[in-house]
């Protein structure tokens, strides 16, 4: 299973009055990790969109376990949790510099035609992506 590793710099604007990262920023971080993973797999969202296909989030599930504070430097790990030829589930783990897991979760995605927003089969329409995702998904 291939995973990407993204170092996060916590910006002051991402925190609340207590100096704790606001929960909404974790979703942004997950997108950053997902983008890095896709690049590590040899693809880009830009190339996907140039073919008239986009990949919306259809579900996101994050568990907040330990607060991240301003000044922390957490690491985000991202991988393909599952893939079935149509739906991709990415996994995430955010760990602080003390090794404590701060958050973990998943996001689910499908690919759709940009003009109609109708779902497509990744296996059929993006065979290169399909092969790489099959090879690099988490083994169960």
From TrEMBL:
The answer to whether the entry has keyword Hydrolase is yes
Among the Pfam families in the record, one is 4HBT_2
| GO molecular function terms listed in the Swiss-Prot or TrEMBL record | fatty acyl-CoA hydrolase activity
Keywords (alphabetical) are: Hydrolase
The record's annotation in InterPro entries points to: 4-hydroxybenzoyl-CoA_TE, HotDog_dom_sf, YbgC/YbaW
Similarity comment text for this entry:
Belongs to the 4-hydroxybenzoyl-CoA thioesterase family.
- Does Calcium count among this protein's keywords? no
The name this protein goes by in its record? Acyl-CoA thioesterase
Superkingdom: Bacteria
